[in-house]
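REQUEST FORM: STRUCTURE PREDICTION
Request ID: SP-0412
Submitted by: Lab K.M.
Chain count: 1
Length (residues): 258
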Amino acid sequence: MSTNKVAVVTASDSGIGKACAVMLAEQGYDIGITWRSDERGAQETAEEVRRLGRRAELTQLDLSDPQQGGEALQALITRLGRIDALVNNAGTNVEGDFLDIAFDDWRKVFTVDVDGAFVCGQIAARQMVKQGDGGRIINITSVHEHTPLPGSVSYTAAKHALGGLTKAMALSLLPHQILVNAVAPGAIATPMNNMQNADAHKVSLPHIPAGRPGDTREIASMVAWLCSEWSTYTTGQSFIIDGGFMLANPQFAAAQQE
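STATUS: Completed
RESULT:
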């Protein structure tokens, strides 16, 4: 069995997840890659990881059924032989204001963003406890873990819930030397936002104090640090990386003008 450290990054077929997978491979981790619908993107991530001399294993993982998704994660961990870090990056959003959103849409977001992170986190943590070497779990939340997103009540509530889950996990798992933190991105140049990394340095976003979207690697580098040897005194925290968005919170002004 390999004694290399292993990290699993959910939804690592593109965007922030892909950047995390590649950066953790650069840091010496073998990588478990998961995808829901973009198998080709996942294969491209795997190729980048292998070019760095690390092992890559892939699986389809759909958290719209968290328990089935959990079984896929368990099988991936078994193939990899162990898990030392889990990045809960998979998430979804259904827009809808409080008075308008259907209960099924509310539940759809909570099922993926909260239930999915809970199930995957529990499976990974139990394996880490069994291994006895500690570990890291990083939940990718959002600035909307801390401030509402107008018109997206389910996303706002789910990301706040994931922030609370992060703190509860951190306290529970600290006796096992498993550290749990959240990373809360602002507007990032991802395919979900119809942008690529290069756009982070070309596109103007004047309503954000930094004046631009973030590069996925600016998020991945925090995840990589949280998985490194020098983050061992850090747990239960949420790291906001948002170009000053939270300082200005421009979406409320925009929502009031509509």
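NOTES: The CA atoms of residues 70 and 120 lie 6 Å apart.
Reviewed by: T.R.
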